[in-house]
Amino acid sequence: MGEVDSMSVSQADRIGYLALRRDGHIATITIDRPEKLNALSNRFWADLRAALAELANDGATRVVVITGAGDKAFSAGGDIAGFSEMHGQDEMRRFQIDAMEGFDAIERSPLTIIAAVNGYALGGGCELTLACDIVIASDDAKFGMPEAALGLIPGFGAIRAASVIGAHMTKFLVATCDHIDARRAYEIGLVQKVVGKAELMDEALRIAARIVRNSPLALTVGKRLINYDIDRRSIDYSVEAITVLQDSEDRKEGVAAFLEKRPPQFSQRKQ
Predict the structure, then answer these.
(1) Has 35 been annotated as catalytic?
(2) Of the listed 3, 35, 127, 187, which one is catalytic?
(3) Which tens digits make up the pLDDT trace of 48-79?
């Protein structure tokens, strides 16, 4: 796609059972399978990657809000019925790689991605929130990684959750399969804000609107740095990334706007 024109503002599209809506610089992806508590089918990860790639390349989107249809669930996790359709380790391995590439697509996306969690976020649904940049939850939301009850573990969650909520809390949730409420999720750092259910999407969109006022390039570089492991590579990347930012048009505009006491008009969005 090229630049988004007036016909595509508030335009809704579908990729599989994902509903996409664009409104200026903000897009919403809705997991639209409420009759199954928005369970993640085997094709979900490819659809999610396609949606994120489309939004990253549409010339306008800067922030994406991911939520679930209906009022019961963000996503109750993987479609357990679909697991039975996989046969042999090769097919199972391909599915795991597919899912990991989906999480990776969120973490590596140049866009800021907000999870607006309404109701259950369990298993793959909880892991989805761990991959997102910001998590806003309704006060009736429930989080958990109960895969051990099915003889599984949360592959991505076991890797990423430790850096978000700590190793011991990750072990506790994986081992007990407990569900925790939104307030507890906020206390351990999984959630950044808890609001009433009726306020959830308005609050997520308000936060998105605040984010789009800032430099897209700086936000992209910042996200990459935060998601980097702390090692020599991240130090080297930081030096080079900040050097690029210092020489960017966004940095020049940001400084000029500050000195002139006016809102900045950022344009550069990719490195």
Answers:
(1) no
(2) 127
(3) 999 999 999 999 999 999 999 999 999 999 88
Element (H, E) at 195: strand 193-195
Q: Is 147 a catalytic site residue?
A: yes
Write down the catalytic residue from 91, 101, 107, 147: 147
Please, are residues 64 and 27 in contact by the beta-carbon 8 Å criterion? yes
Gap between the Cα atoms of 202 and 138, Å rounded: 11
Q: What is the 3-state secondary structure (H, E, C) of 231-254?
A: CHHHHHHHHHHHHHHHCCHHHHHH
Cβ-Cβ contacts under 8 Å for 169 (sequence gap 6 or more): 161, 188
Domain map (residue ranges) of the chain: 6-211, 216-260
pTM across the whole model: 0.85
Q: What is the pLDDT of residue 96?
A: 81
CA distance 43 to 159: 23
Whole-angstrom Cα distance, residue 137 to residue 203?
10
- Give CA–CA dist 199/194, Å, rounded: 10
Q: For residue 69, report the phi and psi dihedrals to the nearest 5 degrees.
A: -75, 155
Average pLDDT, the chain: 87
Is domain 6-211 annotated with CATH 3.90.226.10? yes
